[in-house]
Amino acid sequence: MQSLRAAMSVVVVIGSLGAVPALATEPMPAGQVNALVQMYCAVCHTDTAKNGGLTLQHFDVATSAPSLAAMLTSKLTGGALLHTAQIAGKDPSAAVYIGERMKGGAMGAAGLGTPDKPTIYAFIDALASRARNADQWYIENGPVVIASIFRELPRPNDAGQGSSYRLIVTCDAATQQGEVQLAWSPVPKRGTFTTLIDGEITGTHKAEGSETMGNGSKVEAGPAAIRLFQSRRTAKLPTQSLRISELFPGETIEFPFDQLNNSARKSLSACFQ
Known about the structure:
Elements: H1 2-14, H2 30-40, H3 66-76, H4 82-87, H5 92-102, H6 117-130, E1 138-140, E2 144-155, E3 158-172, E4 177-185, E5 191-197, E6 200-207, E7 211-212, E8 218-219, E9 225-231, E10 241-245, E11 252-256, H7 262-268
Antiparallel strand pairs: 1-2, 2-3, 3-4, 4-9, 5-6, 5-10, 7-8, 10-11
């Protein structure tokens, strides 16, 4: 915490936000969180567009995957580390840092302006709270089984900022159709990266294209998600790990498939070997 305070001291000295309160004094009700997501996020992340590889038209914070809440937090705060957002309700320096990061976050992508600061702080606090344990596999059972997990890497030159990654594995048992998707935050990206399954390089992937925001503008820098592969029982899930290298320069992130419980793996086996 000492290093985080030191890294944020410049922000505190600048004081461009004035006296910034803690992120939230009372928890924001789930209904209000959902309404804000619909107003400011779902206009870009629709069933049709699926910017960032997801739709938020049916988002419910009470039942959302922690990994999804973590990615929303990263997007809205312009890449602030999840831990920073989670402690900001009690740490004034972290609250100042979050306030500064929000200026470059995705809140204004819909072209609707932004809420007042207390509302923003409470909103972020609610999402960051739901994101607890996002670094563990979360299983959503149903006709389509979804397993998701979140990882992040701190930026070496900024103790409070990082790159966020979300892996989503889906399986529709009725059709035996499944896919593995990678999403990232806070910025879209074009370029190539490699995947390693259980330590072996399995291929090079290309992130390309653009995304259209709720205000009609296009993000030409590239997408924020990519389908790694899809399967009708023709591909294997990793036994130990899936590693992503060089999506962002110098970064390697690993997803622990050995921590996927037997029940979830059995459900996913309807689509994967």
